[in-house]
Amino acid sequence: MLDSILGSLKVVALATKTDFRSVTSREVALFEGPMGWGEFSPFLEYSYEESIPWLLSALEAAYAKTPPLNRSVIEVNATMPAIDNPDEIAEILSAFDGACVVKIKVGGDTKADLARIACVRELRPEAKIRIDVNGLWSVDQAHAFLDQVGEIEYVEQPCSTIEELRELKKRTKVKISGDEIIRKAKNPFAIDLSGAIDILMLKVAPLGGINRAIEIAQHHQLPVAVSSALESAVGISHGLKLAAALPHLDFACGLGTGALLAVDVAALPIINGVIEVRDIEPDAGALIKYAASNERLNWWKNRIRMTWSAGAQVIAKERGWTT
């Protein structure tokens, strides 16, 4: 299996429209299997051990059947990076056709964060607002900000630890969503989320694939939303399948982030606030046009070998994917 993966591997570098959490070019590795294309794209700083779920998700996409789907289109939210220029904010929003929900990145300068939210509200007055903190606040900082921000749908990962989230939940009526607390856990099934969060954020690649993400959702029995990790259209298509396979989908999903890329390997458009759930095959011309250097291709091949040896091989064999 490993030889097959490496033999079909394509690595592309996809420019972003703006600085997104210090990312201006997204490198992704793509490979083809009997069931379609998989994407392996853990961020560059992730260790081999941290990258194991990402490789398992890609293997599932390429070598396993998709579970039954319950919906054919997925409502998506707009995603607003931590930018401050009103014209740039308007330009980003315009890329999310018909989105009725906007997720806004915050957690830096409070004045700038509040101004960004106010700008989005002025441009999309009917839209629901959710904010994403990536665990950057203390309990006191979170409480103070939530007192100022006005009505929002929920706050995503305001603090980094379970204990902090529980304390904050006692002090605010704003719903809390958990992201990093789940996807960075060594064992997402072992975490006690009671009294800490109201909503579970699922991301297909960091959680090890569609089936494992569904199992995590079933275990915790919380309302869920699905989001992306700034993947290409290939990776996003598997996030869409996760959202489509869930028995219940309670919120618009953060799966429109392809709109933040200046280029992509395939078209996956947002139309009237939704994206169609379908298989994606990368465009052959795009794979050539946006191909990374041979040096980067070899770097990604080595990363896959090391992630495979670090534990992905054993789990893939247990799941019956090895050939």
From TrEMBL:
InterPro entries given in the database record: Enolase-like_C_sf (IPR036849), Enolase_C-like (IPR029065), Mandelate_racemase_C (IPR013342)
A molecular function (GO) term: metal ion binding
CDD domains with a match to the protein in the record: OSBS
Keywords: Metal-binding
Mandelate racemase/muconate lactonizing enzyme C-terminal domain mapped to chain residues: 86-175
Name of the protein this chain belongs to: Unannotated protein
Provenance organism: freshwater metagenome
